Amino acid sequence: MPTGTAKYNGYAVYCNDNKPLGVVSADGDRMAICNMTIMPKKLQGYLIAIEDKRFYQHTGIDIKGILRAILENLKAGKVVQGGSTITQQLARNILMDNRKNIIRKLKEIFIAFKLENQYIKDQILELYLHKVFWGKRIYGLRAASLEFFSKEPEQLSTAEQLALLTLLRGPNYYLKNETEFHKRYDLLGNILYNRRVLSKRKISKIKKAAIHIGNNDLAIFRNDSVPYIAKQVN
Questions:
Q1: Spatial distance between the Cα atoms of 197 and 62, rounded to a whole number of angstroms
Q2: H/E element holding 23?
Q3: DSSP class of residue 26?
Q4: Edge to edge, what strands does the sheet with 20-24 contain?
Q5: Which of 55, 82, 128, 147 is the most exposed place for a label (fewest CB within 10 A)?
Q6: What is the mean pLDDT of residues 115-142?
Q7: Mean pLDDT comparison of 4-13, 65-74, 113-122, 206-215, highest-scoring range
Q8: Where are the domains of the chain?
């Protein structure tokens, strides 16, 4: 096996009953390396339709999207849509700063423009799915899938994919508020239907599906423990 203190960061560790046990992390964050070649394409489509339908057209900031979000929030009398693009959300995760002030927002916009200049859209989407925050020190789609459903992302049902996207807006809030979780889950289903991403039959099936969000409490393994674990494997 290769040596080095950061060689194994992001690897998932499984029990012998094929249940995810934890991830290898040097800093205590739960982040798992994602194989983008088997990442569910439909989930990526749902993400774009919900979070940033003009993702492939804008250059990091979507003025139309911001104005639309303001209008929808005014109609609803509460925040139901955000105006930040996927690129801005990625920039926010890179900053690791959720303070709501103008300085942080300007930094976020600057990084968003930099990302758009440095990477193509599919690379930005890949970085997002690696780094986005899912609560409980969980970062990235694979770690979230292992934590909440004990599955690899490609094994998730459509309902489970939608459940993960529901948690994105405020993972800690929706994990603690089941009623609000289901309200947003249904809202996102309606968005996907109205934007012709999912059929009426599919949405009806999703809304009837039983969603069981688990709590694996993925363990954190340090890099130097991996060679020891590997030696114990027959």
A1: 21
A2: strand 20-24
A3: S
A4: 12-14, 20-24, 219-221
A5: 82
A6: 93
A7: 113-122
A8: 12-232
Q: Which helix (H) or strand (E) holds 224?
A: none
CA distance 115 to 106: 14
Overall fold of domain 12-232: Penicillin binding protein transpeptidase fold (1.10.3810)
- Residues 204, 190: Cα–Cα separation, whole Å: 10
Q: What is the per-residue pLDDT across 134-172, written as a single tens digit (0 to 9) for each?
A: 998 999 999 999 999 999 999 999 999 999 999 998 999
Q: And the tokens for 96?
A: 């690791």
How far, in whole angstroms, is CA 109 from its chain's centroid? 20
HEC-encoded secondary structure of 195-209? CCCCCHHHHHHHHHC
Distance CA 111, CA 113 (A): 5
**pLDDT tops 90 at residue 1:** no
In the structure, what pLDDT confidence band is assigned to residue 93 with cuts at 50, 70 and 90? Answer: confident
